[in-house]
Model the fold of this input.
Amino acid sequence: MRTRRPTPMSKEAPGATATTLVIIPTYNELENLPLIVDRVRTATPEVDVLIVDDNSPDGTGDRADELAAADDHIHVLHRTEKDGLFAAYLAGFRWGLDRDYSNLCEMDADGSHAPEQLHLLLAEIDNGADLVIGSRYIPGGKVVNWPKDRWVLSKGGNIYISLALGTGLSDMTAGYRVFRREVLEALPMDELSKAGYIFQVEIAYRAVEMGFDVREVPITFTEREIGESKLDGSFVKDSLLEVTRWGLKHRATQAKELSKEIAGLVAYEYKHWRKRNDWF
Done:
């Protein structure tokens, strides 16, 4: 993966995981919330948790307040409306950046992202990565309790995305990831696409294009056992259409840059050829 990074940025020293914030968006996750928070606090007691609740009608926000009242490592951000996962994460990112956390983690509330594997992502951050993605589709990664057609759709979609954008990443739609704060500070969050769940792809793509060190580690993704999925089928169509547009633009930019390099090389060689042959 690319190693160039924007020069104005500096990294925290290795071992900075004590200033990690795990952001857990919620909407009607009353049963799942205490389970996932307990698992996070047990697996990684050094991290803080921010629950971002979108005014859940089932009482999830009240349950979050109870958890926070009992544990100083747990915080709650109440939002007044449900306007998408990206908006919830964006609010969580801003909350964490305002409070000087070094690393910010995305994690689902439904248990599909195992808190017991968070240490794998944090270890890569400590080893110098800027963004670490928990991947289902690299060796060692797997998916549990998905129907075959959903796995094929997700796997095939990620192959297409990787080829279209040329990132070399295997799971750009994955939502289990840890960012160094410098990545989030550098990304133009207000410009990111709101189509479906495409923001996960765009964030990874832009991070690679900006020269950040983006890595993947294998994780086990487990389909939720309690509650209903928030996904609908439209996100696949919206996401792939958007990626196709980015891919075409990316290839056009590459072709333009290559043409400039070739033209410069031809001009250079022609100039020196004239000198060698003493025409003028």
